[in-house]
Amino acid sequence: MTNDLISYSFQTWFGALFGATAVGCIGLLPIFIVPNEQTK
After folding, report:
1. What is the top-level taxon of the source organism (predicted)?
2. What is the 3 state secondary structure string of the chain?
3. Is the pTM of this model over 0.70?
4. How many angstroms from the chain centroid is the CA of residue 18?
5. C-alpha 37 chain-centroid distance
6. Domain coordinates in residue numbering, the chain
7. What distances in angstroms separate CA 4 from CA 9, 20, 21, one per listed residue?
């Protein structure tokens, strides 16, 4: 029971961390792309 609870909470935490990282990367992409387009 305890092992299941730990693995479930770890999966949830990892999923949230991965989701936040993905959203952060997607949100930051335009900041890096726009200046590069302007300098061409």
Report:
1. Eukaryota
2. CHHHHHHHHHHHHHHHHHHHHHHHHHHHHHHHHHHHHHHC
3. no
4. 4
5. 25
6. 1-40
7. 9, 24, 25
